[in-house]
DNA sequence: TTGTATGCGTTATCAG
DNA sequence: CTGATAACGCATACAA
């Protein structure tokens, strides 16, 4: 076994190039401030030693980590994985690393803030609407850390946000059903924990009212964004004396679960029931029937939120006024909806 | 605007508690080495100041980061997102953070090694079979960094690994079709870039040979693990003079795409063609028809790989002999396969 | 253009 | 049980 050589430091490089450590540091961060000859000599020494900068030391000195933290309630959800992918790409372009946290035990407000306070991350990308952003930020006189909330309508206007106009999207989805001639329309609701989901319900109700259509309470079903509640919703519907002819579902997974359950009972989509989902997950297009849905601009969300956060961290966006960016969802018509 | 207070240091706490910084440090890391009275005093000062340890300084001093790096070719793939979730949970339990990297530009071998060498991460969880683990590790006399490769059969026995027995799983999948009475069986192959996928093919061929069944080249279709190649495979099949009665697909996404395409041409699954997939992604159970598949133990992979890596980092597993852990996939019979 | 000196915040070592 | 001190590796102010 070869004895493990310790990783070279800036000093080792300096010695090898016959310059001071300061010069090596300069070659690395502002090469133009160093004469060409020494620059080359240092570069050669760097290559020869295989030197890599020690980030811990650099972070300590610079008081930053060139790292952002992405927090989501459930990274296992495909929705977030696509966002995460975009986040990593955008961060990488700016030279940032990405740390990931998901909701586990303990007080999230506390350990999320810890990450930032402890100099492990320079900013927070928050995808968890159930968290109190105000609390994370230390309240009224808090440290006011770089924070961008995404995917949730944030009721707190003091927090930077990148979000989808859920109300408009839900309105559009519902109008699609109405335009198809449906009048008996139900809504499989998203969990109302966070504002964005509540907005979907409002958009639905708005569209119904605008069209003069009744909102039937027995067709307003509470779901929890997973396949299981979609199935439960199907069962709930089967127990009703009358079925709606169309359903707007708060996300695709629930739509898929519901369609699946109803088919078992002989209710075919779209023959007997039109269904529109929300999100446009990867399989939506290949489900049977291919699912009509509102597509979330997931990559955009991840990318825009990340660049915004980094702009804030680097002071390119003034800290004074909070930033609010709104993205639009897009109607994707496939085969799970049809005229009445 | 309240002037931003700088975050308190261990010195601030020490002053407030009338002790030295060393004592504060001891209270935090080994409380039993400090008298009860001072311990309480220090604790109170910590609470009062809202002190959080500066990780950069700690890392610099301790020469570790208490962070691991997960590298995957494509974090947007739902497969990895579930693994990542398990990784985060397992890491968190041991007090580690998780950094995520995905394949972007540049030489991955180089920047992955950078992460470790630069003291940003203490170990690497590698899910990308196309990467040269040996290279990452610096070759024969390399630094030999803590590294666990997962999800791919690693041909290099010098690298620690946690993997699924793909050959046995593919063999089992194929036998399932054979037991159902099928004799005309095709295989939609995974990309052969990495060994694990190649193992699936070997498992298939083995099972066919054991059963004395012919392997028909025109039914051996090369895919690329996405829905698109599933569709292409469907078209390829439609162009043949004779169809197989059963197909073993290298993953669920391809199976779904293929079934979808064939249905458009009037070939129904499982009526005309039995299909078994691989992975058991979330929608497999709710596809029409619900998909028979080999379930990958994704959570197990993430958890076991993580705990193993941390054990290695912390020296609980001797560095001498590489660790190789094999997990088994499980046959999940649903409705996309039926007797001939 | 380059070098010297200093400090970032922490913990381990060594005295007391 | 506690305190003083040094060192981890880097980047900058200042001096040359």
Can you characterise this structure?
Two copies of one chain form a homodimer. Chain A is built from twelve helices and twelve strands. Chain A is an alpha/beta fold and 340 residues long. In chain A, helix 5 (78-93) crosses helix 12. The model of chain A has no long low-confidence stretch (mean pLDDT 89). Chain A binds a DNA duplex (16 and 16 nucleotides) through residues 9-11, 19-26, 29, 33-35, 38, 53-54, 56-63, 119.
Average pLDDT, all residues of chain A: 89
Radius of gyration of chain A: 26 Å
Helix content of chain A: 40-55%
Number of strands of chain A: 12
Q: Kindly, what is the distance between the CA atoms of the first and last residues of chain A, rounded to a whole number of angstroms?
A: 75 Å
Largest interface: A-B, 58 and 58 residues
Strand order of the largest sheet of chain A: 2-1-3-4-5-11
Overall form of chain A: elongated
* Oligomer state of the chains in this structure: homodimer
Percent range for β-strand residues of chain A: 15-25%
Features of this protein?
alpha/beta, DNA-binding, six-stranded mixed beta sheet, elongated, homodimer
Summarize this, please?
The structure is a homodimer of 340-residue chains. With 340 residues, chain A is of the alpha/beta class. Helices cover 41% and strands 16% of the residues of chain A.
Give the helices and strands, then pairings:
The structure is a homodimer of 340-residue chains.
Chain A: H1 10-17, H2 21-29, H3 36-49, H4 55-62, E1 67-72, H5 78-93, E2 97-102, H6 108-117, E3 123-126, H7 133-136, E4 147-150, E5 160-164, H8 166-179, E6 185-189, H9 195-210, E7 220-222, H10 227-238, E8 246-249, H11 252-264, E9 274-279, E10 292-295, H12 298-313, E11 324-327, E12 330-332
Parallel strand pairs in A: 1-2, 1-3, 3-4, 4-5, 5-11, 6-7, 6-8, 8-9, 9-10
Antiparallel strand pairs in A: 10-12
Helix pairs in contact in A: 1-2, 1-3, 5-12, 8-9, 10-11
The structure holds a DNA duplex (16 and 16 nucleotides).
